[in-house]
Design brief:
The chain has about 130 residues and is an alpha+beta fold. It has two helices and five strands, in the order αβββαββ. It has a single domain, classed as Phage tail protein-like (STM4215-like), CATH 3.30.2000.10.
Length: about 130
């Protein structure tokens, strides 16, 4: 299982069932539900050594609503759900978030409120085979 698949599994199992978790980041039509996209941004050898890699992921959290007020409420709730999932389930798996930055999503004018969340995970270089 890849490191990205581990993060997707963590989020899918911990987030409410009305949140879509997409295992990669790409251009999508405006989502009809709250959405989290997972992408791998960087991989380096872990400073701890011992056959470990340090992964940096970008999570794109997208609200389905675009009207100020309701969209902000939806997005803030999604952010809290994701942070809770990472803090409770992720910490036991070596996954830690470092920052969440406000953004917009959508082409061409970025109409959907979003957050860009950075997280790190330290994972063995030879993950267990399924």
């Amino acid at each position: 299982m890849t490191a990205r698949a581990l993060v997707v599994e963590l989020l899918t199992s911990a987030l409410p069932s009305d949140v879509d978790v997409i295992a990669y980041a790409h251009n999508i039509d405006a989502p009809s539900r709250s959405t989290v996209m997972v992408r791998t941004d960087r991989v380096i050898p872990s400073p701890a050594g011992q056959g470990l890699r340090q992964y940096e992921f970008g999570l794109v959290l997208i609200a389905s609503k675009t009207t100020a007020g309701p969209a902000d409420d939806e997005l803030d709730e999604l952010l809290e759900d994701v942070l809770y999932a990472l803090t409770t389930g992720g910490a036991t798996n070596g996954v830690n978030w470092t920052q969440a930055v406000r953004a917009t999503y959508g082409e061409p004018d970025g109409t959907n409120p979003a957050y860009e969340l950075t997280l790190q995970a330290t994972i063995a270089t030879e993950p267990e085979q399924e």
